[in-house]
C-alpha cells in the first residue's frame, strides 16, 4: 500500500504542479491569427461549440513556470462540467479539473498512472467562490474561499527533475480523447470564471470563437432561453408506463415569456403538441393537433399527463386546477411520446432534423419529466441555452 500511495503521489504532484498551476495572463500571440484574451477575463464556460473542445487555450514553455500559486473565481448552479485542463508531452501527461455532483474532481495521468481525486465543498450554489491552488512543501492544496477544500500529501523525487518542453492549458474543455477519463462526466458547464491570477506567466489565451459571451451580473436557478436557443430530446429516452402515463411539468413566470415554450413531433408526422406564449395577446396557447386551448399568462406552473387516449392538463394560477380536457382526446399524442422528439424553446419544423422557429425568450425555473428534473445538458441538441441559470 505504501508503494502504491507513493506512486500515486508522484504522478499527482507533478501533474498538479505543471498543469493546474499553469495559466497565463497577457502576452504575445503565436501568429496564428486567433483572437487573444487575458487570463483574467470573465469567461462564460458554456458558449456554443463542440462540448469537449476548449473555449480558450494557450501554450507556454515549461521553463517559464516560476510561481507555485494560482487563483480564480467560479460561479455556477451546474453540478457537473469541466473547468480547465493542462497537459505536457503533447497530451501524454494530462490533468483535468471539473465538478461532479457539485464537488471538485481532479483527474490526471502521469506515465502509466491514472489518478482521480474528489473532495471539498459543493460549489454549485450560484455564489462566487475563490479557488486557490498551491504547492506547499509535500502538499498540493486546493483552497476554497480561504479554507482547505482538498489537501493531497506526497513525496517524490520526480519533482527534482529538470522540467522542459511545452505546457498546454485549456478552459472549458480538454485536448485529449474523453475516453481517457477515469470518471465519466458531462463536460458542458453553465458557469463563469473571472479574476484569474495564473502564475507569473505573460502568455495570452487564444479563443476559437469570434467573441466571448458575457456573464450575467446576477443569476437564479433555472434554464434561460435568449430567443435563439433550443434543447431537443428523443422522447424514447423517457421511461413510462401506459397505466400511469408520462407527467411533464413546467414552472416559471409565464408572463415574462414570449415564443414557443415546447413542442412535440414524431418523424414524418404533423406537429402534435405545442405550447406558445404570446406577448401581444398576453396568452399562453396549448395546441393539440387541430385543437387549441388558451390560458392566461399569469399561470405559474403547467402539468401535462400524456396517456394513451387522453392528455390531462393542470395549470397553477395560483392553485393547481384541471383544465377542460374534453377536446384533448388524441391518441396521436401517446404515439408521439413513444417515438417522437421534444423541443424545449422552439417550434419543431417540417423536416425531421429541423430545429424549428419561433424561439422562446424567457426563464423556465423548473422542467420535470416523471417527477425528475430534466438536465438540458443531456439533450441530443442544445444550442444557445443557459441550462442551469437565468438572469435574476
From TrEMBL:
Gene name linked to the record: shbg
A Pfam family the protein falls into: Laminin_G_1
Give start and end of each Laminin G domain. Answer: 40-215
Q: What does it do?
A: Functions as an androgen transport protein, but may also be involved in receptor mediated processes. Each dimer binds one molecule of steroid. Specific for 5-alpha-dihydrotestosterone, testosterone, and 17-beta-estradiol. Regulates the plasma metabolic clearance rate of steroid hormones by controlling their plasma concentration.
Going by the UniProt record, its keywords in alphabetical order are: Disulfide bond, Glycoprotein, Lipid-binding, Repeat, Secreted, Signal, Steroid-binding
SUPFAM superfamilies given in the database record:
Concanavalin A-like lectins/glucanases
Output the InterPro entries linked to this UniProt entry: ConA-like_dom_sf (IPR013320), GAS-SHBG-PROS (IPR051145), Laminin_G (IPR001791)
Q: Which CDD domains match?
A: LamG
What is its quaternary makeup?
A: Homodimer.
Q: Where is the major localization of this protein?
A: secreted
Recorded protein name is: Sex hormone-binding globulin
Instruction: Give the signal peptide range.
Output: 1-24
Which SMART domains does the UniProt record give? LamG
Supply one GO CC term from the record: extracellular region
| GO function term, MF aspect, one | steroid binding
Q: Where does it live in the cell?
A: Secreted
This chain's source organism reads Verasper moseri (Barfin flounder)
Amino acid at each position: 500500500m505504501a508503494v502504491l500511495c507513493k506512486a500515486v503521489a508522484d504522478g499527482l504532484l507533478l501533474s498538479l504542479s505543471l498543469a493546474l498551476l499553469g495559466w497565463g495572463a497577457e502576452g504575445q500571440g503565436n501568429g496564428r491569427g486567433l483572437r487573444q484574451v487575458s487570463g483574467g477575463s470573465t469567461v462564460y464556460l458554456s458558449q456554443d461549440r463542440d462540448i469537449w473542445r476548449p473555449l480558450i487555450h494557450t501554450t507556454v514553455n515549461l521553463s517559464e513556470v516560476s510561481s507555485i500559486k494560482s487563483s480564480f473565481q467560479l460561479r455556477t448552479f451546474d453540478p457537473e462540467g469541466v473547468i480547465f485542463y493542462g497537459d505536457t508531452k503533447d497530451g501524454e501527461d494530462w490533468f483535468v479539473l471539473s465538478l461532479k455532483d457539485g464537488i471538485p474532481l481532479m483527474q490526471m495521468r502521469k506515465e502509466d498512472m491514472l489518478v482521480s481525486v474528489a473532495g471539498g465543498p459543493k460549489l454549485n450554489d450560484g455564489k462566487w467562490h475563490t479557488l486557490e491552488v498551491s504547492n506547499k512543501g509535500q502538499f498540493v492544496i486546493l483552497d476554497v474561499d480561504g479554507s482547505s477544500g482538498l489537501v493531497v500529501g506526497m513525496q517524490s523525487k520526480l519533482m527534482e527533475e529538470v522540467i522542459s518542453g511545452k505546457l498546454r492549458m485549456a478552459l472549458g474543455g480538454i485536448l485529449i480523447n474523453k475516453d481517457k477519463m477515469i470518471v465519466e462526466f458531462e463536460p458542458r458547464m453553465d458557469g463563469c470564471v473571472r479574476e484569474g491570477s495564473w502564475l507569473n506567466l505573460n502568455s495570452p489565451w487564444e479563443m476559437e470563437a469570434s467573441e466571448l459571451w458575457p456573464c450575467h451580473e446576477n443569476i437564479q436557478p433555472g434554464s434561460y432561453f435568449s430567443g435563439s436557443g433550443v434543447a431537443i430530446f428523443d422522447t424514447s429516452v423517457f421511461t413510462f408506463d401506459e397505466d400511469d402515463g408520462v407527467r411533464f411539468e413546467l414552472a416559471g413566470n409565464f408572463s415574462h415569456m414570449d415564443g414557443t415554450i415546447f413542442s412535440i413531433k414524431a418523424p414524418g408526422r404533423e406537429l402534435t403538441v405545442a405550447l406558445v406564449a404570446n406577448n401581444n395577446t398576453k396568452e399562453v396557447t396549448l395546441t393539440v393537433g387541430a385543437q387549441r386551448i388558451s390560458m392566461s399568462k399569469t399561470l405559474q406552473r403547467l402539468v401535462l399527463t400524456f396517456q394513451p387516449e387522453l392528455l390531462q392538463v393542470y395549470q397553477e394560477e395560483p392553485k393547481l386546477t384541471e383544465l377542460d380536457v374534453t377536446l384533448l382526446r388524441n391518441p396521436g399524442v401517446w404515439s408521439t411520446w413513444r417515438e417522437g422528439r421534444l423541443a424545449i424553446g422552439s417550434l419543431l419544423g417540417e423536416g425531421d432534423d429541423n430545429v424549428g422557429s419561433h424561439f422562446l425568450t424567457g426563464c423556465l425555473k423548473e422542467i420535470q419529466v416523471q417527477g425528475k428534473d430534466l438536465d438540458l445538458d443531456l439533450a441530443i441538441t442544445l444550442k444557445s441555452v443557459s441550462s442551469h441559470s437565468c438572469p435574476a
